[in-house]
Amino acid sequence: MDPSHDLTSRAGVVQAGHRWGILVDLLYSPVLEHSGRNSIEDSEHIGCNRPICKTVSDAEEVLDVIVGFDKRDKATRTASKYIPRGGYKQFLNANGLKGKRLGLVRNPFFMFESGSVLPQVFEHHFHTLRQGGAILADHLEIANIDVILSLSEEDAALEAEFKISVTPERTLANVIAFNSKFSHLEKIKEYGEDILLRAQATNGINKKTLFKLARLSKF
Questions:
Q1: Are strands 101-103 and 135-137 parallel, antiparallel or unpaired?
Q2: Sorting pLDDT into bands at 50, 70 and 90, what band is 5?
Q3: What is the pTM of this model?
């Protein structure tokens, strides 16, 4: 992976958006507003599923493909006029890191197994960020991070809202059936679909889920 390639832009793209790796995450707003809510499942409390790519350049190309007017989502009619002529690649800025402050939270995310190459991989990329002019604020701490990560409220919100947010034309049951039919292509044996199955077993936002969401809002 090379997150340093054309690292920053003004098109709603951030680097290292994925929780467990150095990847590029397309931000919520430009993806949802410019491609339509029928193509991206949206969760009120967790956010939305969105493309995660290996480099910012890759993310720009994905964004160019998926944006546009969606006749099933009127919000995209207004947003579509703001899509730049010529695409988003024109906003890539190889010097965009200069002077930017980036925070690194190592605990508890940098707990690697003995002998893992991941520490060296991350340090290489941190060095690349510094070479690009970024100022890295290292070893930041998030208060109550262990408590936050141990909460089941986020999972409860994801499972309940994921099922009800799937569009009527494509129910979660349809998705699971498709995965079962083409399990070799979807690699169900390798990766499973536990989250989908747990979400399918929910019955929407009930009192128990509302209680968990109230606890989640405190963090």
A1: parallel
A2: very low
A3: 0.57
